[in-house]
Amino acid sequence: MEQRIIQLYHDFLKKEEEKAFIKEADLAYNKENYETRIHSIDNTMKITNAMYLISSTKMRKARAGLMQTEPYFYTLQSMMARVMRHLPEDYTHPYLDLREGVANGQGTVAIICVTADKGLAGSL
Predict the structure, then answer these.
(1) Given CA atoms 36, 37, 39, 44 in this order, what sign does their dihedral have?
(2) Cα separation of 59 and 51, whole Å?
């Protein structure tokens, strides 16, 4: 009977040791998972920051390009205004129609593109 009790006690200790080993293995596994996850999040943050820097550089470049076209736009606008002032009073053209019956922003808009005859316009 004593040997049976001792055997049961040893079996109990073995099971407890196995549980402790499994628990340690799980903790190590979870630690590795957490470290991997933290590392991947850090990499994602680095990529996101790099993308932000690239997009802000592109935006800055686009704004600079827009600022460079403003003098051309205002010169063209004043030139068109001078041409319009010198037209006869009774001059009519479909592109110059005010269409007073159409609400502002509701009509069709025509765009007049004035360019040089330079092929691909590389010199411009």
Answers:
(1) positive
(2) 12
